[in-house]
Amino acid sequence: MTDPSDAGDPGRLRRTREPAGPAETAAAPASPPGGAADLRHAVAGGARAESREQNRDRRGILAMIDHPLVVAFVATLGVLGALLIGSALGSIATILIYIILALFISLGLDPVVRRLERAGMRRGAGIAIVFVAFAVLVALFLIFVLPPVLAQIAEFIVSIPQAMAEIQQSEWFVSLNDDLQAAVGSSLDQLSVSLADPHTVAAISGGALAVGIGVAGFISASFIVVALTLYFLASLAAMKRALYSLAPARNRPRLADMTERITASVGGALIGSVILSTINAIVVFVLHLLIGLPFPALMALIAFVITLIPLFGSVIFWILGTVIALFSSPSQALIFGIAYLVYIQLESYVVSPRVMNREISIPAALVLIGALIGGALAGVLGVLLALPVMASLLLIIREVVVPKQDLKI
């Protein structure tokens, strides 16, 4: 039967009645729905979208060219805003240093408070005990350590000309050959002339005055740091919870774990560095008293500051202390060098593994680079914070950055 509607269309009637041949059937495979046609439409749509985007960018560039004054005005406002922000940060740099110092001190004292909590003490009582002990140590330093150090600094400056004169009369100087005596004597004479120069005297006096002003500023700033430390130590848990709430709920457990590990490593590194530096200072003070070297308190303070540099601080002070001891006597310098070298070995293999956090594993080159950068940016404070900051950055890289990169194939 033929559809009456096909009567006026012979071609349609023929297509209906004639079946497709084998060749036609093989040459025209069935296309799945949504196959090549949809792919062609998607490619065409993407090309049209890309063309529209390029046209929009071209119109934006042409508009900027047509209005150069507007572009220059906006760029000027951006530069002025950046300068204003930089000036504001510079004006509050001291306050930011106080805040950072107080935060790191609180992180360093928090492990002690947690240990007291594990012993059954309430956190408030543990904070009070730790804070009182910390305040007592600071007071003991200001009362018993700082005055002798300042007095010995003045004695050291006054005794420099006499010490250089005595060097040329010492036995080890006389035992040198003529060429070495001439070279050392010429260097000492030039140093004496430099120290006698009025500009040098004025610089030393200005430096001593700056030290005095710095001590007064340190005493006034210590009250601010102490108050901020007490606040941070009391509200450290609340601050962590506030930080966790800023992250999505699915990421909060991982963020909490990483934050606890970072704060624990920072606290352990700070406490360990201060303890090791304190032990170094005590050893240097005792060695100077036993050997009879001058300025024991001053050298102990210098040892405390230098040994804050991780890994390399003890070696640096060993060289410096031995060279300074040479000005007193070669035998005393030899005794000091051997005794302090023995202590360095004990510190490396016995003291440091028991004091420092064992989870902190940083390549030596990165430790030195971090200490140099921290010292250039923030002085002694930067050197002290170099190790925990580097440990935190390495932990973030190992736990966050590297796993994300491993997933990219």
Can you tell me about this structure?
The protein has 409 residues and is mainly alpha-helical. Helices cover 84% and strands 0% of the residues. The chain is built from 15 helices and no strands. The radius of gyration is 37 Å and the shape is globular. The protein starts with 9 loop residues before the first helix and ends with a helix.
Secondary structure tally: strands: 0
Number of helices: 15
Let me know the average pLDDT. 74
Strand content: under 5%
Overall structural class, as computed from helix and strand content, comes to mainly alpha
What's the order of the H and E elements?
Answer: HHHHHHHHHHHHHHH
- Sheet bearing the most strands, described? none
- Ends: how far apart? 63 Å
Shape: globular
Q: Over all CA atoms, what is the radius of gyration?
A: 37 Å
Low-confidence stretches: 1-34, 201-209
What's the helical proportion of residues? Answer: over 70%
